[in-house]
Amino acid sequence: MSDSESNASSDDSRSQGDNGSDQQQREIEDQNNLNQSDENEDQGEQYEEEKSDEMGEYDEGENSQKDGNNLMGDDNEYNEDKIGDDNMTRYQELEANILQMYAETGQKWQDPDFPPDNSSLFKDVNNIPEWGKDVRKITWLRPHEISKEAKFIQDKDGDAKQGAFGESWFIGAIIIISTHGDLLEKLFVETSHFDSAGFVTFQFFKNGEWKQVIVDTLLPYDPESKQILFTYCASPSEFWIPLMEKAYSKLHGCYEKICEGSILEGLVDLTGGVSEGWTLNDPDTSKLIESNQFWQTLTNYFHQKFYLGCVNYVEGKGTKNADTGTHGILENHHYGICDIREFPRENLKLIRIRNPWGTDGGWNGPFCDDSEEWDKYRELRDKLKLVFKSKKSDGTWWMSFHDWYLHFNKLYVCKVFPENWEVYSIESKWQGKTQGGICPPRMEYEGQEPMPEFLQLDTDEKWFNNPQFRLKVQKETKLYISLMLEDEKLSKHSYVQCNFIVIANKDRNNRVWERPQDNDIIIEANPNGVLPAQREITQYVSLKRFEGKNYGNYIIVPNMITDSKKDEKRTFYLRIFASDAVSVNEMPETLEVSMDGQWGDFNSGGKRKIENKSNANWCRNPQYFLNLVQPTNLKIILKKVGQIRRTRGLKIGMTICRFEVAEKQNTQGKGKKEIQTQSKGKQAGSNLARLLTQTQQQLEPPIMENIERKLFIGYAEKFKESTYISDEVCALYFKWNPTEGPFIIIPSMDQEDKNANYKLTIYSNNPVQLQRLDENKNCVLIGKWEQDISDGGCHLYDDPFEKDMTKKTWTQNPKFLLNFKENKPTSFKVTLAIAEKNWKAKTKNTVGGMIGIYLLEKREGKISIEQRIGNINFLPVQVLEETYHLSEISKNGYYIMPSTYQSKISGQFILSVTSDSEFTLQALK
């Protein structure tokens, strides 16, 4: 099987950053003294929190998690006390049970969860891969059944041999970390029962935490070749490599699942650090090599004790039958880098390579053990204390930097940080609304004229809902930020393209609600999705305090680039490695309130203006009333739902204005016909144009009672309106105080009398009150006084030619039938509004243009003035409100008849009825 063909190319594509990217340039510049604290920093300076201007500081202690799995302890050792308590306790209990069973029976332990049969070897025992078919018989033997001198480990730098399927990536990762040796031992949790009870325990870093894996010592064995089926140690009496591979296979489910993988992932699983890959013949890397920057980076990596490895990858070839390349180096086999030296006087740059493949795959070029080059540099040979023996090599060789990058084409780096670095890890997820997707471009105004004050540009409708993490620094701090997905071998979810953005955010209390300005974006890990789907992406960044502040506040926003099913949970792990202590918190999710709605035959009023003309039907649209209880960030999102294709081309948007809280009426009914009425007239907008700049100290929100329909935007009234650029979604962002509200939200399409379904959603950081106008208790109709047909005037108008009451035309005015569903005491308000701005031009005098409302009890026969209920008040206003209270309700209903004082004045009007009881209102012909 040729697994490394895909693995090596996978490692190339899964590099943790573009070789020539700004990120690596920044890292190169900041590499010096990466492990040292800034000695020039004033160590005595104390961090002081600033007081919040609007609301209390978010509690950093809540949801903050300094990694319980701190990767490194004293002297670069794993701190086992910090391993997850539940995980450790569970395996300690299992070990105790195994030892008790061994004490009672004397039998070596056999793992029931990973039995010695084909179920532990293959994903599907009925569909065995080709490499499994090549082995006729597989038996499972204990180490002492394979070698009488069996030991768990003899030499931590011991060589390895490939087994049946020639896996390379996992063994390559082991080889790289065994270059130093000290870290390898930390993976051995318990090995003292290797001989007696027949089990060993390893640990691997998986899905954000260290996980212990116990395995018995039974190993799959090929009796024909007399070899362990998979990777084995070069020494026949050493067994730590095959047992570690078995534990790693058990963690993933079976041996076959680790046939394919990435060495970069393997390095992280073995160290808990972060890894990256370089393609040495990449044009950007070549430029760094030519400028000597790459050598400086490589040297810095080595001095920081990062783990380094290399491979000569040849596409189309595996590892099992790979050829020996030029000068003896095996193709597609991983080698470790164990020393890097520069000798300026000799003008030499040397790299020492560890060969883990025994006598195979050794360098035979310049500076190898038998090279004549050493005769030219005898002082250097003595300085390096080189002793060349004719017998077996020590498994290492030197080669020049120039030869190294000519004969190897890939470099792997595993960065494991020392004790004085802080490590933080938070588990989070994208699911439902937190699947916010990519950061969209900022909307730009395309109009030729300056953007009107009332116009509000659309914003993104979901990116802001991605999980967000606040990071505070008190001094200049170097950080590696890692975004890691669940291992696809365990989660059964394939990897998706991901990204994260680090944003400077001066608002220390809230998440980022809007797409940040370009100069606020500190770094973006995967801009434009240049990196493919992979398990982990990592970025290096240096963060500073804000100018004039003793802190720096930043927000990290991870997001998926690849779309995923909305209800599908995708878990991820955000890891932060910091040179100094920082504060890390996951910000609370947004609060959500939503309502479904429909534009139909009676409430599809269209835009406020159609073809730059006022649209009286606009007030027919559904209306929502929003109240706040404290200063709040909001995203108000209107989205079509259902059969969207049928409404393509119909753009949607919304208008938002202030709701004028109505005064509570204290009217008392006095009988069926004797009622109390209240009239109130106003010029449109005269009382609605309250400034929205009230002091924030007045945090008590107004009580939202007696809500009623908004009929139109009055003169000088403040409001906001979207741009109607999309036929699917409209999203607006606001930051409001309670005293600026309550608010009315009026969603609409850009055309009237069209049908569509929609969903109105409000996301906020504080609770809000949202109430839909009840259309069974609030109704609006558009009417018209038509010339010579229904422009009858009122019964009080004294025309010189119409002295006879029977000849007056007031009964010809438009009529509307009002019926209440229940016979109970009822209060209601009738509002008559003149919709046309040029109304005054139609009247010769103020008196003639006055408006009034007739409320008449419906009876048989002709309408007479005796049917009226209450007084008929005519006022010289544009909006007239009449309030009624009826103690009993007429079964026949009531006529509402709007009228002008003088006859023969035509024009459009709006009639609105609001009640505390359900009713119907219809226009009569």
From TrEMBL:
Molecular function GO labels: calcium-dependent cysteine-type endopeptidase activity
InterPro entries the record matches: Calpain_cysteine_protease, Calpain_domain_III, Calpain_III_sf, Papain-like_cys_pep_sf, Peptidase_C2_calpain_cat
Signal peptide range in chain numbering: none
Biased composition (Low complexity): 1-10
Keywords: Hydrolase, Protease, Thiol protease
The keyword Protease belongs to this UniProt entry's keyword annotation: yes
Protease is among the record's keywords: yes
Region called Disordered, residue ranges: 1-84
Pfam families: Calpain_III, Peptidase_C2
SUPFAM superfamilies: Calpain large subunit, middle domain (domain III), Cysteine proteinases
Chain intervals with Acidic residues compositional bias: 38-62
Catalytic residues in the record: H333, N355
SMART domains cross-referenced by the UniProt entry: CysPc
Domain Calpain catalytic, first and last residues per copy: 108-417
GO BP, one annotated term: proteolysis
Similarity comment: Belongs to the peptidase C2 family.
PANTHER family: CALPAIN, CALPAIN-5
Protein name listed in UniProt: Calpain family cysteine protease
Organism: Tetrahymena thermophila (strain SB210)
